[in-house]
User: Which sequence fits this backbone?
DNA sequence: CGTTAATTTGAGACCATTCAATTTCGGTGG
DNA sequence: CCACCGAAATTGAATGGTCTCAAATTAACG
Protein backbone atom coordinates (compact mmCIF):
# COMPACT_ATOMS: atom_id res chain seq x y z
CA UNK A 1 0.00 0.00 0.00
CA UNK A 2 2.90 2.29 0.65
CA UNK A 3 3.20 5.58 -1.06
CA UNK A 4 5.86 6.55 1.42
CA UNK A 5 8.80 5.11 -0.42
CA UNK A 6 12.08 6.81 -0.76
CA UNK A 7 11.74 10.45 -1.74
CA UNK A 8 11.98 10.92 -5.48
CA UNK A 9 15.57 11.29 -6.49
CA UNK A 10 16.87 13.07 -9.52
CA UNK A 11 18.42 10.99 -12.30
CA UNK A 12 21.87 12.37 -11.68
CA UNK A 13 21.60 11.55 -8.01
CA UNK A 14 20.17 8.10 -8.27
CA UNK A 15 22.93 6.17 -9.95
CA UNK A 16 26.64 5.80 -10.02
CA UNK A 17 28.62 4.76 -13.06
CA UNK A 18 30.80 1.75 -12.44
CA UNK A 19 33.81 0.56 -14.35
CA UNK A 20 32.73 -1.92 -16.96
CA UNK A 21 33.04 -5.52 -15.91
CA UNK A 22 33.97 -4.60 -12.37
CA UNK A 23 33.31 -8.13 -11.19
CA UNK A 24 35.11 -9.82 -14.05
CA UNK A 25 31.89 -10.77 -15.83
CA UNK A 26 30.34 -9.03 -18.76
CA UNK A 27 27.31 -7.02 -17.57
CA UNK A 28 25.07 -8.87 -19.99
CA UNK A 29 26.48 -12.30 -19.15
CA UNK A 30 23.26 -13.56 -17.56
CA UNK A 31 21.17 -12.23 -20.42
CA UNK A 32 23.36 -13.87 -23.03
CA UNK A 33 23.40 -17.13 -21.15
CA UNK A 34 19.61 -17.11 -21.08
CA UNK A 35 19.41 -16.35 -24.78
CA UNK A 36 21.83 -19.07 -25.86
CA UNK A 37 19.45 -21.85 -24.94
CA UNK A 38 16.15 -20.57 -26.14
CA UNK A 39 16.22 -17.95 -28.82
CA UNK A 40 19.56 -19.66 -29.65
CA UNK A 41 21.56 -16.66 -30.76
CA UNK A 42 24.47 -17.20 -33.07
CA UNK A 43 28.04 -16.52 -31.94
CA UNK A 44 28.15 -13.35 -33.99
CA UNK A 45 24.91 -12.17 -32.42
CA UNK A 46 26.42 -12.75 -29.02
CA UNK A 47 29.52 -10.83 -30.07
CA UNK A 48 27.35 -7.95 -31.13
CA UNK A 49 25.71 -7.99 -27.73
CA UNK A 50 29.03 -8.20 -25.97
CA UNK A 51 30.36 -5.13 -27.72
CA UNK A 52 27.21 -3.10 -27.16
CA UNK A 53 27.73 0.40 -25.81
CA UNK A 54 26.31 0.43 -22.31
CA UNK A 55 26.73 2.14 -19.00
CA UNK A 56 26.91 0.02 -15.90
CA UNK A 57 25.19 1.88 -13.11
CA UNK A 58 24.48 1.21 -9.47
CA UNK A 59 20.96 2.03 -8.34
CA UNK A 60 20.25 2.84 -4.72
CA UNK A 61 17.54 1.14 -2.73
CA UNK A 62 14.22 2.76 -3.50
CA UNK A 63 15.52 4.82 -6.42
CA UNK A 64 13.62 5.01 -9.68
CA UNK A 65 15.03 3.72 -12.95
CA UNK A 66 12.04 4.77 -15.04
CA UNK A 67 9.25 7.14 -14.07
CA UNK A 68 5.69 6.78 -15.34
CA UNK A 69 4.93 9.24 -18.11
CA UNK A 70 8.56 10.11 -18.81
CA UNK A 71 9.85 9.99 -22.37
CA UNK A 72 11.75 6.77 -22.97
CA UNK A 73 15.38 7.33 -23.89
CA UNK A 74 17.11 4.25 -22.51
CA UNK A 75 16.59 0.58 -21.91
CA UNK A 76 17.98 -1.32 -18.97
CA UNK A 77 19.15 -4.86 -18.38
CA UNK A 78 19.26 -5.89 -14.75
CA UNK A 79 22.69 -7.15 -13.67
CA UNK A 80 22.08 -7.71 -9.99
CA UNK A 81 19.40 -6.93 -7.45
CA UNK A 82 15.64 -6.89 -7.80
CA UNK A 83 13.49 -4.27 -9.42
CA UNK A 84 9.70 -3.78 -9.59
CA UNK A 85 7.39 -2.15 -12.11
CA UNK A 86 4.53 -0.33 -10.43
CA UNK A 87 1.67 2.07 -10.84
CA UNK A 88 -0.02 4.38 -8.39
CA UNK A 89 -3.77 4.87 -8.13
CA UNK A 90 -5.53 8.05 -7.11
CA UNK A 91 -5.79 7.05 -3.47
CA UNK A 92 -2.02 6.91 -3.39
CA UNK A 93 -1.94 3.16 -3.11
CA UNK A 94 0.60 1.24 -5.11
CA UNK A 95 0.22 -1.84 -7.26
CA UNK A 96 3.28 -3.76 -8.35
CA UNK A 97 2.69 -5.17 -11.82
CA UNK A 98 5.95 -7.02 -12.37
CA UNK A 99 9.12 -8.13 -10.65
CA UNK A 100 12.38 -8.25 -12.57
CA UNK A 101 15.31 -10.46 -11.66
CA UNK A 102 18.93 -10.36 -12.86
CA UNK A 103 19.37 -11.17 -16.53
CA UNK A 104 16.05 -9.64 -17.51
CA UNK A 105 15.31 -6.53 -19.51
CA UNK A 106 13.72 -3.94 -17.31
CA UNK A 107 11.71 -1.92 -19.77
CA UNK A 108 11.88 -3.59 -23.16
CA UNK A 109 8.22 -2.79 -23.73
CA UNK A 110 9.03 0.88 -23.72
CA UNK A 111 11.32 0.52 -26.74
CA UNK A 112 8.44 1.04 -29.12
CA UNK A 113 6.56 3.52 -26.96
CA UNK A 114 7.11 7.22 -26.60
CA UNK A 115 6.31 7.42 -22.92
CA UNK A 116 6.72 4.92 -20.11
CA UNK A 117 3.41 3.82 -18.72
CA UNK A 118 4.68 2.62 -15.40
CA UNK A 119 7.53 3.28 -13.02
CA UNK A 120 10.45 1.00 -12.32
CA UNK A 121 11.87 1.11 -8.84
CA UNK A 122 14.76 -0.70 -7.25
CA UNK A 123 14.15 -2.90 -4.25
CA UNK A 124 17.38 -2.98 -2.28
CA UNK A 125 20.48 -1.97 -4.21
CA UNK A 126 20.86 -3.11 -7.78
CA UNK A 127 23.02 -2.78 -10.85
CA UNK A 128 21.66 -2.00 -14.28
CA UNK A 129 23.27 -1.99 -17.71
CA UNK A 130 21.80 1.09 -19.32
CA UNK A 131 21.67 1.15 -23.11
CA UNK A 132 20.51 4.07 -25.21
CA UNK A 133 17.29 3.44 -27.08
CA UNK A 134 18.75 4.19 -30.55
CA UNK A 135 21.59 1.77 -29.84
CA UNK A 136 19.14 -1.03 -29.15
CA UNK A 137 16.93 -0.16 -32.09
CA UNK A 138 19.92 -0.19 -34.43
CA UNK A 139 21.00 -3.52 -33.05
CA UNK A 140 17.54 -4.97 -33.62
CA UNK A 141 17.47 -3.66 -37.16
CA UNK A 142 20.88 -5.12 -37.92
CA UNK A 143 20.32 -8.44 -36.17
CA UNK A 144 16.76 -9.72 -36.38
CA UNK A 145 17.50 -12.67 -34.11
CA UNK A 146 18.25 -10.30 -31.25
CA UNK A 147 15.04 -8.48 -31.97
CA UNK A 148 13.22 -11.78 -31.71
CA UNK A 149 14.92 -12.56 -28.42
CA UNK A 150 13.78 -9.24 -26.99
CA UNK A 151 10.31 -9.76 -28.38
CA UNK A 152 10.14 -13.20 -26.80
CA UNK A 153 11.16 -11.64 -23.50
CA UNK A 154 8.29 -9.16 -23.67
CA UNK A 155 5.94 -11.99 -24.57
CA UNK A 156 6.94 -14.00 -21.53
CA UNK A 157 6.62 -10.90 -19.36
CA UNK A 158 3.11 -10.52 -20.72
CA UNK A 159 2.32 -14.14 -19.94
CA UNK A 160 3.42 -13.62 -16.35
CA UNK A 161 1.31 -10.48 -16.09
CA UNK A 162 -1.72 -12.42 -17.31
CA UNK A 163 -1.17 -15.02 -14.63
CA UNK A 164 -1.05 -12.20 -12.11
CA UNK A 165 -4.46 -11.07 -13.32
CA UNK A 166 -5.74 -14.58 -12.66
CA UNK A 167 -4.05 -14.57 -9.27
CA UNK A 168 -5.70 -11.36 -8.15
CA UNK A 169 -9.03 -12.05 -9.75
CA UNK A 170 -9.75 -15.58 -8.75
CA UNK A 171 -7.71 -16.52 -5.70
CA UNK A 172 -8.05 -15.50 -2.07
CA UNK A 173 -5.21 -14.13 0.02
CA UNK A 174 -3.73 -17.51 0.85
CA UNK A 175 -3.74 -18.60 -2.75
CA UNK A 176 -2.33 -15.35 -4.05
CA UNK A 177 0.61 -15.32 -1.69
CA UNK A 178 1.35 -19.01 -2.12
CA UNK A 179 1.26 -18.55 -5.87
CA UNK A 180 3.59 -15.59 -5.76
CA UNK A 181 6.06 -17.48 -3.59
CA UNK A 182 6.03 -20.42 -5.99
CA UNK A 183 6.69 -18.16 -8.96
CA UNK A 184 9.49 -16.27 -7.29
CA UNK A 185 11.11 -19.43 -6.01
CA UNK A 186 11.28 -20.93 -9.51
CA UNK A 187 12.43 -17.72 -11.13
CA UNK A 188 15.11 -17.13 -8.51
CA UNK A 189 16.24 -20.69 -9.03
CA UNK A 190 16.49 -20.10 -12.77
CA UNK A 191 18.98 -17.29 -12.23
CA UNK A 192 20.98 -19.31 -9.74
CA UNK A 193 19.79 -17.66 -6.56
CA UNK A 194 18.40 -20.81 -4.92
CA UNK A 195 21.15 -23.30 -4.14
CA UNK A 196 18.69 -25.49 -2.25
CA UNK A 197 15.12 -25.24 -1.01
CA UNK A 198 15.90 -21.83 0.42
CA UNK A 199 16.42 -18.51 -1.21
CA UNK A 200 16.66 -14.82 -0.49
CA UNK A 201 13.27 -13.25 -1.03
CA UNK A 202 14.05 -9.57 -1.24
CA UNK A 203 10.47 -8.35 -0.74
CA UNK A 204 9.08 -6.95 2.49
CA UNK A 205 5.57 -7.93 3.56
CA UNK A 206 4.40 -4.54 2.44
CA UNK A 207 5.87 -5.13 -1.01
CA UNK A 208 4.30 -8.57 -1.18
CA UNK A 209 1.02 -6.87 -0.34
CA UNK A 210 1.53 -4.48 -3.25
CA UNK A 211 2.14 -7.45 -5.55
CA UNK A 212 -0.98 -9.39 -4.67
CA UNK A 213 -3.43 -6.59 -3.96
CA UNK A 214 -3.79 -7.03 -0.22
CA UNK A 215 -2.89 -4.97 2.83
CA UNK A 216 0.37 -5.58 4.69
CA UNK A 217 -1.62 -6.54 7.76
CA UNK A 218 -3.41 -9.29 5.96
CA UNK A 219 -0.25 -10.51 4.26
CA UNK A 220 1.23 -10.87 7.71
CA UNK A 221 -1.63 -12.99 8.92
CA UNK A 222 -1.62 -15.18 5.83
CA UNK A 223 2.12 -15.78 6.11
CA UNK A 224 1.57 -16.91 9.67
CA UNK A 225 -0.89 -19.53 8.57
CA UNK A 226 1.48 -20.74 5.84
CA UNK A 227 4.17 -21.04 8.48
CA UNK A 228 2.09 -22.86 11.07
CA UNK A 229 0.96 -25.28 8.39
CA UNK A 230 4.55 -26.18 7.78
CA UNK A 231 4.60 -24.97 4.19
CA UNK A 232 7.30 -22.32 4.41
CA UNK A 233 9.74 -20.51 6.61
CA UNK A 234 10.17 -16.80 6.01
CA UNK A 235 11.98 -14.29 8.10
CA UNK A 236 14.59 -11.65 7.45
CA UNK A 237 14.15 -12.08 3.70
CA UNK A 238 15.09 -15.73 3.91
CA UNK A 239 12.48 -18.00 2.39
CA UNK A 240 12.55 -21.76 2.81
CA UNK A 241 10.13 -24.02 1.02
CA UNK A 242 9.28 -26.78 3.47
CA UNK A 243 6.54 -28.41 1.43
CA UNK A 244 6.62 -27.61 -2.26
CA UNK A 245 3.69 -29.72 -3.33
CA UNK A 246 1.59 -28.35 -0.51
CA UNK A 247 2.46 -24.80 -1.46
CA UNK A 248 1.70 -25.32 -5.14
CA UNK A 249 -1.61 -26.82 -4.13
CA UNK A 250 -2.56 -23.86 -1.95
CA UNK A 251 -1.49 -21.48 -4.71
CA UNK A 252 -3.05 -23.52 -7.52
CA UNK A 253 0.32 -23.17 -9.17
CA UNK A 254 1.30 -24.49 -12.59
CA UNK A 255 4.57 -22.98 -13.76
CA UNK A 256 4.07 -23.43 -17.49
CA UNK A 257 3.16 -19.78 -17.88
CA UNK A 258 6.78 -18.95 -17.02
CA UNK A 259 7.96 -20.59 -20.24
CA UNK A 260 11.72 -20.09 -20.52
CA UNK A 261 12.04 -18.15 -17.30
CA UNK A 262 12.46 -21.40 -15.41
CA UNK A 263 14.62 -24.42 -15.87
CA UNK A 264 12.55 -27.29 -17.18
CA UNK B 1 -17.49 -17.36 -12.66
CA UNK B 2 -19.02 -19.65 -15.22
CA UNK B 3 -17.40 -22.87 -16.16
CA UNK B 4 -20.57 -23.88 -17.86
CA UNK B 5 -19.94 -22.27 -21.18
CA UNK B 6 -20.73 -23.87 -24.45
CA UNK B 7 -19.63 -27.48 -24.59
CA UNK B 8 -16.20 -27.86 -26.10
CA UNK B 9 -16.46 -28.10 -29.83
CA UNK B 10 -14.02 -29.72 -32.15
CA UNK B 11 -12.03 -27.48 -34.48
CA UNK B 12 -13.76 -28.79 -37.56
CA UNK B 13 -17.15 -28.14 -36.02
CA UNK B 14 -16.54 -24.74 -34.62
CA UNK B 15 -15.94 -22.68 -37.70
CA UNK B 16 -17.16 -22.21 -41.19
CA UNK B 17 -15.02 -21.05 -44.05
CA UNK B 18 -16.42 -18.02 -45.80
CA UNK B 19 -15.68 -16.71 -49.25
CA UNK B 20 -12.89 -14.19 -49.05
CA UNK B 21 -14.07 -10.62 -48.87
CA UNK B 22 -17.69 -11.63 -48.57
CA UNK B 23 -18.66 -8.14 -47.45
CA UNK B 24 -16.61 -6.32 -50.04
CA UNK B 25 -13.87 -5.40 -47.58
CA UNK B 26 -10.55 -7.05 -47.17
CA UNK B 27 -10.57 -9.14 -44.00
CA UNK B 28 -7.56 -7.28 -42.67
CA UNK B 29 -8.93 -3.86 -43.57
CA UNK B 30 -9.31 -2.71 -39.97
CA UNK B 31 -5.88 -3.99 -39.05
CA UNK B 32 -4.22 -2.22 -41.95
CA UNK B 33 -6.09 0.98 -41.23
CA UNK B 34 -4.82 0.88 -37.67
CA UNK B 35 -1.27 0.24 -38.78
CA UNK B 36 -1.17 3.03 -41.35
CA UNK B 37 -1.27 5.73 -38.71
CA UNK B 38 1.03 4.43 -36.07
CA UNK B 39 3.57 1.89 -37.15
CA UNK B 40 3.14 3.70 -40.53
CA UNK B 41 3.57 0.78 -42.85
CA UNK B 42 4.71 1.45 -46.37
CA UNK B 43 2.44 0.80 -49.33
CA UNK B 44 4.39 -2.30 -50.25
CA UNK B 45 4.08 -3.60 -46.69
CA UNK B 46 0.34 -3.09 -46.92
CA UNK B 47 0.30 -4.90 -50.24
CA UNK B 48 2.11 -7.80 -48.67
CA UNK B 49 -0.51 -7.90 -45.95
CA UNK B 50 -3.32 -7.66 -48.46
CA UNK B 51 -2.06 -10.65 -50.41
CA UNK B 52 -1.45 -12.77 -47.33
CA UNK B 53 -2.82 -16.29 -47.45
CA UNK B 54 -5.62 -16.45 -44.93
CA UNK B 55 -8.84 -18.25 -44.22
CA UNK B 56 -11.84 -16.23 -43.27
CA UNK B 57 -13.84 -18.22 -40.73
CA UNK B 58 -17.01 -17.70 -38.80
CA UNK B 59 -16.85 -18.62 -35.14
CA UNK B 60 -19.99 -19.58 -33.27
CA UNK B 61 -20.95 -17.99 -29.97
CA UNK B 62 -19.03 -19.65 -27.18
CA UNK B 63 -16.69 -21.60 -29.48
CA UNK B 64 -12.97 -21.72 -28.80
CA UNK B 65 -10.42 -20.29 -31.23
CA UNK B 66 -7.41 -21.34 -29.17
CA UNK B 67 -7.30 -23.80 -26.30
CA UNK B 68 -4.88 -23.48 -23.40
CA UNK B 69 -1.96 -25.86 -23.73
CA UNK B 70 -2.54 -26.63 -27.39
CA UNK B 71 0.35 -26.36 -29.81
CA UNK B 72 0.19 -23.10 -31.72
CA UNK B 73 -0.19 -23.54 -35.45
CA UNK B 74 -2.14 -20.48 -36.50
CA UNK B 75 -2.61 -16.85 -35.69
CA UNK B 76 -5.89 -15.01 -35.91
CA UNK B 77 -6.94 -11.47 -36.69
CA UNK B 78 -10.40 -10.55 -35.51
CA UNK B 79 -12.62 -9.24 -38.29
CA UNK B 80 -15.89 -8.81 -36.44
CA UNK B 81 -17.32 -9.73 -33.07
CA UNK B 82 -15.69 -9.85 -29.67
CA UNK B 83 -13.36 -12.45 -28.29
CA UNK B 84 -11.89 -13.02 -24.83
CA UNK B 85 -8.68 -14.61 -23.58
CA UNK B 86 -9.23 -16.56 -20.38
CA UNK B 87 -7.79 -19.00 -17.91
CA UNK B 88 -9.44 -21.42 -15.55
CA UNK B 89 -8.39 -22.01 -11.97
CA UNK B 90 -8.65 -25.26 -10.07
CA UNK B 91 -11.99 -24.37 -8.52
CA UNK B 92 -13.38 -24.14 -12.03
CA UNK B 93 -13.76 -20.40 -11.90
CA UNK B 94 -12.81 -18.37 -14.91
CA UNK B 95 -10.73 -15.23 -15.20
CA UNK B 96 -10.81 -13.22 -18.39
CA UNK B 97 -7.38 -11.72 -18.98
CA UNK B 98 -8.05 -9.78 -22.17
CA UNK B 99 -10.78 -8.65 -24.51
CA UNK B 100 -10.12 -8.40 -28.23
CA UNK B 101 -12.03 -6.16 -30.58
CA UNK B 102 -12.17 -6.14 -34.40
CA UNK B 103 -8.89 -5.21 -36.05
CA UNK B 104 -6.77 -6.79 -33.32
CA UNK B 105 -4.58 -9.85 -33.44
CA UNK B 106 -6.04 -12.54 -31.26
CA UNK B 107 -2.98 -14.52 -30.31
CA UNK B 108 0.10 -12.74 -31.58
CA UNK B 109 1.92 -13.60 -28.35
CA UNK B 110 1.70 -17.24 -29.23
CA UNK B 111 3.73 -16.74 -32.41
CA UNK B 112 6.98 -17.25 -30.55
CA UNK B 113 5.66 -19.83 -28.12
CA UNK B 114 5.21 -23.54 -28.63
CA UNK B 115 2.03 -23.86 -26.61
CA UNK B 116 -0.78 -21.44 -25.95
CA UNK B 117 -0.96 -20.46 -22.32
CA UNK B 118 -4.55 -19.34 -22.33
CA UNK B 119 -7.76 -20.01 -24.19
CA UNK B 120 -9.48 -17.69 -26.62
CA UNK B 121 -13.24 -17.89 -26.75
CA UNK B 122 -15.77 -16.07 -28.86
CA UNK B 123 -18.43 -13.98 -27.18
CA UNK B 124 -21.39 -13.90 -29.54
CA UNK B 125 -20.63 -14.79 -33.13
CA UNK B 126 -17.45 -13.51 -34.69
CA UNK B 127 -15.30 -13.70 -37.79
CA UNK B 128 -11.60 -14.39 -37.71
CA UNK B 129 -8.93 -14.26 -40.41
CA UNK B 130 -6.84 -17.32 -39.67
CA UNK B 131 -3.24 -17.27 -40.87
CA UNK B 132 -0.80 -20.15 -40.61
CA UNK B 133 2.06 -19.52 -38.21
CA UNK B 134 4.83 -20.12 -40.81
CA UNK B 135 3.12 -17.67 -43.15
CA UNK B 136 3.28 -14.95 -40.53
CA UNK B 137 6.81 -15.77 -39.49
CA UNK B 138 7.98 -15.62 -43.11
CA UNK B 139 6.22 -12.30 -43.54
CA UNK B 140 7.92 -10.90 -40.45
CA UNK B 141 11.31 -12.10 -41.65
CA UNK B 142 10.79 -10.56 -45.05
CA UNK B 143 9.28 -7.32 -43.80
CA UNK B 144 10.68 -6.10 -40.51
CA UNK B 145 8.22 -3.21 -40.32
CA UNK B 146 5.34 -5.64 -40.12
CA UNK B 147 7.18 -7.51 -37.41
CA UNK B 148 7.48 -4.26 -35.53
CA UNK B 149 3.79 -3.55 -35.96
CA UNK B 150 2.91 -6.93 -34.50
CA UNK B 151 5.39 -6.44 -31.71
CA UNK B 152 3.91 -3.06 -30.89
CA UNK B 153 0.50 -4.69 -30.75
CA UNK B 154 1.70 -7.23 -28.21
CA UNK B 155 3.30 -4.42 -26.21
CA UNK B 156 0.06 -2.49 -26.05
CA UNK B 157 -1.80 -5.66 -25.08
CA UNK B 158 0.69 -6.08 -22.27
CA UNK B 159 0.15 -2.50 -21.16
CA UNK B 160 -3.57 -3.11 -20.97
CA UNK B 161 -3.02 -6.30 -19.00
CA UNK B 162 -0.87 -4.39 -16.51
CA UNK B 163 -3.63 -1.87 -16.02
CA UNK B 164 -5.98 -4.77 -15.35
CA UNK B 165 -3.63 -5.93 -12.60
CA UNK B 166 -3.88 -2.47 -11.07
CA UNK B 167 -7.65 -2.56 -11.48
CA UNK B 168 -8.04 -5.84 -9.64
CA UNK B 169 -5.40 -5.16 -7.05
CA UNK B 170 -6.17 -1.67 -5.92
CA UNK B 171 -9.77 -0.80 -6.75
CA UNK B 172 -13.02 -1.93 -5.21
CA UNK B 173 -15.94 -3.30 -7.18
CA UNK B 174 -17.32 0.09 -8.19
CA UNK B 175 -13.95 1.28 -9.38
CA UNK B 176 -13.16 -1.90 -11.26
CA UNK B 177 -16.38 -1.93 -13.20
CA UNK B 178 -16.33 1.78 -13.93
CA UNK B 179 -12.76 1.44 -15.15
CA UNK B 180 -13.61 -1.48 -17.40
CA UNK B 181 -16.54 0.39 -18.90
CA UNK B 182 -14.35 3.41 -19.60
CA UNK B 183 -11.75 1.26 -21.31
CA UNK B 184 -14.24 -0.62 -23.43
CA UNK B 185 -16.06 2.53 -24.41
CA UNK B 186 -12.89 4.14 -25.73
CA UNK B 187 -11.70 1.01 -27.47
CA UNK B 188 -15.07 0.39 -29.09
CA UNK B 189 -15.05 3.98 -30.21
CA UNK B 190 -11.62 3.53 -31.77
CA UNK B 191 -12.93 0.76 -34.00
CA UNK B 192 -16.01 2.73 -34.96
CA UNK B 193 -18.54 0.95 -32.79
CA UNK B 194 -19.68 4.02 -30.84
CA UNK B 195 -21.41 6.55 -33.05
CA UNK B 196 -22.37 8.64 -30.02
CA UNK B 197 -22.28 8.26 -26.26
CA UNK B 198 -23.84 4.84 -26.59
CA UNK B 199 -22.40 1.57 -27.75
CA UNK B 200 -23.07 -2.12 -27.86
CA UNK B 201 -21.36 -3.76 -24.91
CA UNK B 202 -21.36 -7.41 -25.84
CA UNK B 203 -20.57 -8.72 -22.35
CA UNK B 204 -23.08 -10.25 -19.97
CA UNK B 205 -22.88 -9.38 -16.29
CA UNK B 206 -21.33 -12.77 -15.68
CA UNK B 207 -18.63 -12.02 -18.23
CA UNK B 208 -18.00 -8.61 -16.71
CA UNK B 209 -17.59 -10.42 -13.40
CA UNK B 210 -15.00 -12.70 -14.95
CA UNK B 211 -13.12 -9.65 -16.23
CA UNK B 212 -12.91 -7.80 -12.94
CA UNK B 213 -12.64 -10.67 -10.48
CA UNK B 214 -16.06 -10.36 -8.84
CA UNK B 215 -19.18 -12.49 -8.69
CA UNK B 216 -22.07 -11.88 -11.09
CA UNK B 217 -24.29 -11.05 -8.14
CA UNK B 218 -22.03 -8.29 -6.99
CA UNK B 219 -21.56 -6.94 -10.51
CA UNK B 220 -25.31 -6.67 -10.69
CA UNK B 221 -25.50 -4.65 -7.50
CA UNK B 222 -22.67 -2.36 -8.53
CA UNK B 223 -24.24 -1.69 -11.90
CA UNK B 224 -27.40 -0.68 -10.13
CA UNK B 225 -25.58 1.93 -8.10
CA UNK B 226 -23.86 3.25 -11.24
CA UNK B 227 -27.29 3.54 -12.84
CA UNK B 228 -29.02 5.21 -9.94
CA UNK B 229 -26.18 7.71 -9.71
CA UNK B 230 -26.88 8.70 -13.27
CA UNK B 231 -23.50 7.59 -14.60
CA UNK B 232 -24.59 5.00 -17.14
CA UNK B 233 -27.46 3.18 -18.73
CA UNK B 234 -26.96 -0.49 -19.44
CA UNK B 235 -29.48 -3.02 -20.51
CA UNK B 236 -29.74 -5.59 -23.26
CA UNK B 237 -26.08 -5.05 -24.14
CA UNK B 238 -26.69 -1.39 -24.82
CA UNK B 239 -24.40 0.87 -22.83
CA UNK B 240 -24.90 4.61 -22.63
CA UNK B 241 -22.44 6.87 -20.91
CA UNK B 242 -24.49 9.54 -19.18
CA UNK B 243 -21.65 11.18 -17.26
CA UNK B 244 -18.21 10.49 -18.65
CA UNK B 245 -16.23 12.57 -16.21
CA UNK B 246 -18.12 11.07 -13.30
CA UNK B 247 -17.46 7.57 -14.56
CA UNK B 248 -13.75 8.19 -15.10
CA UNK B 249 -13.58 9.58 -11.60
CA UNK B 250 -15.22 6.54 -10.04
CA UNK B 251 -12.96 4.27 -12.09
CA UNK B 252 -9.83 6.36 -11.53
CA UNK B 253 -9.44 6.13 -15.28
CA UNK B 254 -6.59 7.58 -17.32
CA UNK B 255 -6.61 6.18 -20.84
CA UNK B 256 -2.96 6.75 -21.67
CA UNK B 257 -2.18 3.09 -21.06
CA UNK B 258 -4.23 2.31 -24.17
CA UNK B 259 -1.67 4.07 -26.35
CA UNK B 260 -2.70 3.65 -29.99
CA UNK B 261 -5.79 1.63 -29.23
CA UNK B 262 -7.78 4.82 -28.86
CA UNK B 263 -8.17 7.92 -30.96
CA UNK B 264 -6.33 10.78 -29.34
C1' DC C 1 23.16 1.37 21.08
C1' DG C 2 19.94 4.41 19.60
C1' DT C 3 16.80 5.22 15.78
C1' DT C 4 13.90 3.97 12.21
C1' DA C 5 11.73 0.49 9.52
C1' DA C 6 9.33 -3.85 9.55
C1' DT C 7 6.48 -7.10 11.65
C1' DT C 8 2.85 -8.47 14.74
C1' DT C 9 -1.60 -8.20 17.36
C1' DG C 10 -6.61 -6.89 18.36
C1' DA C 11 -11.27 -5.58 17.53
C1' DG C 12 -14.84 -3.63 14.76
C1' DA C 13 -16.62 -2.30 10.34
C1' DC C 14 -17.32 -3.17 5.63
C1' DC C 15 -17.10 -5.12 1.14
C1' DA C 16 -17.98 -9.09 -1.34
C1' DT C 17 -19.49 -13.96 -1.43
C1' DT C 18 -22.62 -17.77 -1.07
C1' DC C 19 -26.81 -19.99 -2.01
C1' DA C 20 -31.15 -19.81 -3.24
C1' DA C 21 -35.30 -18.19 -5.17
C1' DT C 22 -37.55 -15.02 -8.17
C1' DT C 23 -38.26 -12.03 -11.99
C1' DT C 24 -37.26 -10.28 -16.42
C1' DC C 25 -35.83 -10.68 -20.96
C1' DG C 26 -34.82 -12.43 -25.81
C1' DG C 27 -35.71 -15.61 -28.94
C1' DT C 28 -38.46 -19.54 -30.76
C1' DG C 29 -42.21 -22.30 -32.38
C1' DG C 30 -47.06 -22.91 -32.65
C1' DC D 1 -49.30 -12.77 -32.33
C1' DC D 2 -49.00 -15.22 -28.27
C1' DA D 3 -47.14 -18.89 -25.35
C1' DC D 4 -43.27 -20.82 -24.08
C1' DC D 5 -38.46 -21.67 -22.90
C1' DG D 6 -33.77 -20.98 -21.31
C1' DA D 7 -30.58 -17.56 -20.25
C1' DA D 8 -29.70 -13.46 -17.94
C1' DA D 9 -30.67 -10.30 -14.46
C1' DT D 10 -32.38 -9.28 -9.90
C1' DT D 11 -33.39 -9.76 -4.86
C1' DG D 12 -32.61 -11.38 0.08
C1' DA D 13 -30.25 -12.87 4.10
C1' DA D 14 -26.44 -14.94 6.26
C1' DT D 15 -21.58 -15.82 6.09
C1' DG D 16 -16.85 -14.74 5.57
C1' DG D 17 -12.72 -12.56 3.90
C1' DT D 18 -10.31 -8.42 4.07
C1' DC D 19 -9.71 -3.69 5.62
C1' DT D 20 -9.11 -0.03 8.89
C1' DC D 21 -6.93 2.04 12.65
C1' DA D 22 -4.24 1.87 16.21
C1' DA D 23 -0.82 0.27 19.30
C1' DA D 24 2.85 -2.84 20.61
C1' DT D 25 6.68 -5.58 19.60
C1' DT D 26 10.61 -6.96 17.06
C1' DA D 27 14.26 -6.53 13.81
C1' DA D 28 17.57 -3.91 10.88
C1' DC D 29 21.18 -0.51 10.31
C1' DG D 30 24.66 3.01 10.96
Assistant:
Amino acid sequence: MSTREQPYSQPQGRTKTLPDGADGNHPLALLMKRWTTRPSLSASDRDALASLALTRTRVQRGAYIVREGEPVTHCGALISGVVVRQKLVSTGNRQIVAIHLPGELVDAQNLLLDHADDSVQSIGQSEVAVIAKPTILDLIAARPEIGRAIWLDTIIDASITREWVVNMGRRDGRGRIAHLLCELYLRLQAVGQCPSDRCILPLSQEQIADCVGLTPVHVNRVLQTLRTEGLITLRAHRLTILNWSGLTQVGDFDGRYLHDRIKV
Q: What stands out?
A: Chain B is about 40% helix and 20% strand. Chain B touches chain A at residues 69, 85, 87, 89-91, 93-95, 97-98, 109, 112-113, 115, 117-118, 141, 144, 147-148, 151-152, 154-155, 157-159, 161-166, 168-171, 210, 212-213, 252, 256-257, 259 (CB under 8 Å). The radius of gyration of chain B is 18 Å. The mean pLDDT of chain B is 87.
